[in-house]
C-alpha cells in the first residue's frame, strides 16, 4: 500500500501493520540487518521500548549492525526506566563495538558513559581519540576533553592542564560547538591557559552567540 493512498485513519493503521509485517519478514526470513534495525525503530516509534531493545540487540549480535549496537548500548545505561536491563559494563562494550563498526555517535557516547561513571582518566583517553577522528561528533569529544582537563585533579584524577584544555576547547569551537567557544572566550578573558586578551574574549563570545543562534559564517 502506497502512502499516497492513505486517506483515512483506518488505511494508515493498516499501512503501519503491513510495514511491521514487511520488516519482520525481511529480518527473520531474509536475514536483512537493516530490516531488523527498522523493526526496532518501529517498536520505538510506538512506545514499546522493551520490544525495540530486543530487536536492536538481535540486529547487533547476529549481524553487527552498527546503529543497532549503538542503540542497544545506550539502552543499557537506563534500561530500568522502561523495565529493561541496565548494565553499564555492557553499555560500554556495545557502544565501543558500535564505534569500531563505524557508528560515529557510538564513539562519543562510549566516552560519555565513562565520564558519567566518573572514570575520568579512561573517558579522557577516549575523548582525545574521538576528537582526533574528525567525524561528526568530534566536537563533543573535544569539548568534553577540555572540561576534564580544566577541572581540578582531586575531582577527576587527571592532572589539571589549562593550556591543553584551551587547545581542545579551541578545536571544538572551530567545529562550531558554541559551548566550547564560550570556554575559549572565558580563557582569553581570564588568561587561563592562554595569554589574556579581552578583545579575543569578545570575539569568541560573539562567535558562540552566532553559532547558538544559527548564524554560522
TrEMBL record:
<keyword id="KW-0677">Repeat</keyword>
<dbReference type="GO" id="GO:0005758">
    <property type="term" value="C:mitochondrial intermembrane space"/>
</dbReference>
<dbReference type="InterPro" id="IPR006597">
    <property type="entry name" value="Sel1-like"/>
</dbReference>
<comment type="similarity">
    <text>Belongs to the hcp beta-lactamase family.</text>
</comment>
<dbReference type="InterPro" id="IPR040239">
    <property type="entry name" value="HcpB-like"/>
</dbReference>
<dbReference type="InterPro" id="IPR011990">
    <property type="entry name" value="TPR-like_helical_dom_sf"/>
</dbReference>
<dbReference type="Pfam" id="PF08238">
    <property type="entry name" value="Sel1"/>
</dbReference>
<protein>
    <submittedName>
        <fullName>Cytochrome c oxidase assembly factor 7 homolog</fullName>
    </submittedName>
</protein>
Amino acid at each position: 500500500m502506497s502512502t499516497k493512498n492513505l486517506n483515512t485513519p483506518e488505511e494508515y493503521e493498516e499501512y503501519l501493520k503491513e510495514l511491521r509485517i514487511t520488516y519482520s519478514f525481511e529480518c527473520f526470513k531474509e536475514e536483512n540487518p537493516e530490516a531488523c534495525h527498522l523493526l526496532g525503530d518501529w517498536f520505538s516509534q510506538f512506545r514499546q521500548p522493551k520490544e525495540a531493545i530486543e530487536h536492536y540487540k538481535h540486529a547487533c549480535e547476529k549481524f553487527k549492525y552498527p546503529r543497532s549496537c549503538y542503540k542497544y548500548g545506550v539502552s543499557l545505561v537506563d534500561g530500568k526506566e522502561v523495565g529493561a536491563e541496565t548494565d553499564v559494563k555492557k553499555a560500554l562494550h556495545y557502544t565501543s563495538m558500535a564505534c569500531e563498526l563505524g557508528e560515529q555517535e557510538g564513539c562519543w557516547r562510549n566516552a560519555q558513559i565513562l565520564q558519567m561513571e566518573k572514570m575520568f582518566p579512561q573517558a579522557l583517553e577516549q575523548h582525545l581519540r574521538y576528537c582526533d577522528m574528525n567525524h561528526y561528533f568530534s566536537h563533543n569529544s573535544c569539548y568534553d576533553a577540555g572540561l576534564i582537563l580544566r577541572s581540578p585533579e582531586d575531582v577527576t584524577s587527571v592532572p589539571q592542564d589549562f593550556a591543553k584544555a584551551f587547545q581542545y576547547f579551541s578545536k571544538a569551537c572551530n567545529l562550531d560547538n558554541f559551548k566550547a567557544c564560550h570556554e575559549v572566550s572565558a580563557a582569553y578573558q581570564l588568561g587561563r591557559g592562554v595569554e589574556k586578551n579581552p578583545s579575543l574574549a569578545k570575539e569568541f563570545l560573539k562567535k558562540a552567540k552566532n553559532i547558538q543562534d544559527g548564524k554560522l559564517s
